[in-house]
UniProtKB/TrEMBL annotation:
GO cellular component, one term: membrane
Keyword tags: Membrane, Transmembrane, Transmembrane helix, Transport
CDD domains named in the record: MFS_ExuT_GudP_like
Top-rank taxon, per record: Bacteria
Cellular localisation: Membrane
Protein name, entry field: Quinolone resistance transporter
Molecular function, one GO term: transmembrane transporter activity
Amino-acid biosynthesis among keywords: no
Organism: Paraburkholderia saeva
Regions crossing the membrane: 24-41, 61-82, 94-112, 118-140, 152-178, 184-207, 255-276, 296-314, 321-338, 344-366, 378-398, 410-428
Gene3D superfamilies tied to this protein: MFS general substrate transporter like domains (1.20.1250.20)
Length: 442
């Protein structure tokens, strides 16, 4: 009988870990998906008010593109410090702070009065939001075992696709509101921003920073989760005795490659996001709500594509090849979008969305597996912040091109070229750490 006790104990620990993972997924993931949806809508909703900003405030194409992109400058500057503060103050307090301040900044967008205040509010919104995405990724590393993090990440990333679908109809419907001296576009900013403020209060009461703080987990489940995370770290320590250094990683060319790849993906995503409503308006005489409905179509298609490519990548394992494949799909779609009528351009962007949204989902497991958990939060924040500078370059360049030439064809061709380059980089790069390097561990 004495020999069966360890097996029973091991089975109990396995059951406790499985139960803990199940509870964490149900307790945390729906909240993070809701946060991502609200986050994404507040970030990109200016794409629906470009004509309103021009008519009411005199903000032209170049100024609009610059303002849309300035968000990503302050976002990049404050991303890494924000994630370091998250580790210091805890996820509960810091994610609540992020959500509250970005909601207030989003409301403030309703009261811009010209180009300078538009620029200032976009910079403020980027600074307020910095740290959210990599903060959630870091949260997963503290709460879920390695084998479960990829599934959680896929569900979390679905929030951006859902937000892309919902943002059009919701923003379009809100823009039909008028009254109290505010235009429809101002009501859109106020209501969508206040949704973030309300959600911030819910986060404070619902979220826990560490598994030991979670009263909704039993003690056995807490022990199982903590033991699993600690065991992963002991395995890293056994392979790499020297504690990894973020400064060593900054000298690692592989990190630069990660940044270049994600920059290319973001460039295409935000180039399409901020200019797609304008392309739709050229297709016919649509009101704001109808534009929003059309805007949802590419993102709806992309959700199906993300799921299908994730299944293919799980079955036929070569993550880099799948990322390269979907980047080539994005390149073909963006190139075609500049070569025809507005309707043809819309269909081409629907095709491109299959590629660039799937690329975003398939990319993140690669750096996650490459980095040691002890410095992963800061480095993932670095990759995300530098990569997201594509969100500055794309709209700013598109705005200048349209103002100078009256067309964005050159911009679409440039996006296609960048996707081809990124596909080559990701396919031919060696993205596993070499043995003996103290800075990295799987």
């Amino acid at each position: 009988m004495s020999r069966s006790t360890p097996a029973a104990s091991g089975a109990d620990r396995t059951d406790a870990l499985a139960g803990a993972v199940r509870k964490i997924n149900w307790h945390v993931l729906p909240l993070f998906v809701a946060m991502f949806i609200v986050n994404y809508i507040d970030r990109v909703n200016i794409g629906f008010v470009r004509q309103n900003l021009s008519a009411d405030l005199g903000i032209g194409a170049a100024a609009y593109g610059l303002g849309a992109g300035l968000f990503f400058i302050s976002y990049a500057v404050f991303e890494v410090p924000s994630n370091m503060l998250l580790q210091r103050f805890g996820a509960k307090a810091w994610l609540t702070r992020i959500m509250l301040t970005w909601g207030l900044a989003a409301v403030g967008m309703a009261f811009v009065r010209g180009e300078m205040s538009f620029y200032a509010m976009r910079l403020l919104l980027g600074a307020a939001e910095a740290g959210f995405f990599p903060g959630v990724i870091f949260y997963f590393t503290q709460w879920l075992p390695r084998d479960e993090r990829g599934k959680a990440m896929a569900i979390f990333l679905s929030g951006s696709a859902l937000a892309s679908i919902l943002s059009g109809p919701i923003s379009g419907a809100l823009m039909l509101i008028s009254g109290w001296g505010l235009h429809g576009w101002q009501w859109m900013f106020v209501i969508e921003g206040m949704a973030s403020v309300v959600l911030a209060g819910f986060i404070w009461f619902w979220l826990d920073s560490k598994p030991r703080d979670a009263r909704w987990l039993s003690r056995a489940e807490q022990d199982a989760i903590v033991a699993s995370i600690e065991e992963e770290q002991r395995q890293r320590d056994a392979v790499h005795a020297i504690k990894p250094s973020i400064w060593t990683l900054l000298r690692d060319p592989q990190i630069l490659i990660f940044c270049v790849i994600y920059f290319s993906v973001s460039l295409t995503i935000y180039g399409a996001t901020f200019w797609l409503p304008s392309i739709i308006r050229k297709m016919g005489h649509f009101n704001d709500f109808q534009v929003g409905l059309f805007n949802s179509i590419p993102w709806l298609i992309s959700i199906v594509a993300m799921y299908c490519f994730a299944m293919l990548a799980a079955r036929f394992r070569f993550q880099q090849a799948w990322v390269a494949c979907v980047l080539l799909i994005a390149a073909l779609g963006m190139y075609a979008a500049g070569k025809g009528s507005p309707m043809f351009s819309f269909v081409a962007i629907c095709f491109a969305a299959i590629g660039f949204k799937a690329a975003s989902a398939l990319f993140w497991p690669i750096p996650q597996g490459y980095l040691d958990a002890r410095i992963s939060a800061a480095v993932l924040a670095l990759i995300n912040s530098i990569g997201n500078l594509g969100g500055f370059v794309a709209p700013a360049a598109f705005g200048l091109l349209e103002q100078k030439t009256g067309s964005i064809e050159g911009g679409l061709t440039g996006l296609a070229l960048m996707s081809v380059v990124a596909a080559g980089v990701v396919f031919f790069s060696r993205m596993k750490p070499r043995e003996g390097r103290s800075a990295l561990a799987l």
